[in-house]
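Dear colleagues,

As part of the handover before I leave the project, I'm documenting each prediction I ran so the next person doesn't have to rerun anything. This entry is a single chain, and its sequence is reproduced below.
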Amino acid sequence: MDQNLLQLVKTSFSLWVILLCSVLAVAAAVERAIALWGFGDEARSLADAVGRALFRADLDDGRAQCERSTSMAAEVFLAALVALSPKGGSLAGRPAQAPDAERLVAAVERERQRVNLRMRRGLWILGTVGATAPFIGLFGTVVGIMNAFHDMAHTGQGGFAVVAAGISEALITTAAGIAVAVLAVVLFNVLNTHVQKLTLQLRLLTEEYLELVTELLPTLRPGAPARAAGGEG
């Protein structure tokens, strides 16, 4: 039976596809786990750093914090800073022209949606494997049973004992497909739930950030006094 199983692994196209699907599912899950590791803490730390820079009226430092950060949330915070000061500089050194609050909010929201898409990247692989692996296994089983009956017709010998071995080996592909599908679905649900949690955290951080930015917008109006460099009022 072990030799027959090894032969099945070597010759079954469906089983090779299932094995490939399992590798893709595990690779996609590991990649997403690494990419999302520490996202919430990094985003919160970056939001605090940029917020302190805004209170100091130092857009250059805020932009530098975003550009040095490896967090995916950096682009969200950077979008507002670019809208506030396209060429850099501090709040005190801005031209006498207040930025459009609606355009600023829209720019930040666009970046937040892009980050949401980036966080979900690769999850479709897990969903696809979970949905198709059982059918690939079933296809391999049907082909195996057809071959078993073909061999029975070719040899002219009948009876269940003749085809039992071939059918039992063919059913292995169905079992393998179901096992891989269960693994992929579990990984998809775990990562999808985690991504939903992170997107909610990012949304709350973005709303807090926009509240801070819009609070600082009056200082950009013509004739408005600049904030003190060390003040956080």
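The chain has eight helices and no strands. Residues 2-220 form one domain.

All the best with the project,
I.
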